[in-house]
Amino acid sequence: MNVPPLVLDLKVVRPERRLVHLWLPLFLLWPLALALGVLALALTIVVDGVLLLLGRRFHHYTVLLVHSFAVIGETRGMVIRFSNQKTAVDMTVQ
Amino acid sequence: MTEDRSRILDLLAGGKITAEEAERLLDALDTHAGAATSPTGSAIKGDPEPLIAALPKYLYVKVLAANGDNVDVKIPIVLVRSGLKLTSLIPPLAMDKINDTMSEHGMSVDFNNFKPEDIDELIGGLRDMEVNVDAKNGDTVRVYCA
Hints:
The structure holds two protein chains of two kinds.
Chain A: E1 7-13, E2 20-25, H1 30-53, H2 61-73, E3 79-83, E4 88-93
Antiparallel strand pairs in A: 1-2, 1-4, 3-4
Helix pairs in contact in A: 1-2
Chain B: H1 3-13, H2 19-36, H3 49-53, E1 58-64, E2 70-76, H4 77-87, H5 92-104, H6 116-126, E3 130-134, E4 140-145
Antiparallel strand pairs in B: 1-2, 1-4, 3-4
């Protein structure tokens, strides 16, 4: 797994207007995400345990949650550009 | 085991490359070593980095609409791989709903048949994939890996 995204670089260009260039510090959300992740992990472990005891076939919510975090981590490097005759938007996950 | 092989296997173990990519690199290394093997049989000490660098890193989706709207998306291949792996972990009940919804929208893909072991093969197949759509109204769509 890669380092989670650190910054969201957003540029909005409109004719005859100032360039809007924002660096959104995603790393500031990490502590919150960590706290929520730990809580969610504790919950999914309990749920998986109960489902396993009940003999349910699907008891992989913990794995699902961990992989969900992995997917978020892999978004680094993604670029989305949109442009039309009036506006150009450039979004880069760094 | 040569140093190069060890490095490729380390990359595989670290999840940096897939099993199929590792196989291709090892094959390429064998071919390279076989061509340059001396009569004494010592393998060439090649650097696998150029081979690794040649693997596609991104999936590109480019849409050029006739009305001037352009969309350009660059998605890391590792994200595609992780997303596909996540798909194989979705609970069956939720997956059935997803399949039904997709079917209603004309995409009859059964994700229940999507196995984690198929993902590497699918990603490997993306390497050679290129989709070019030229619509009558002038819209063009390009999907490719590089």
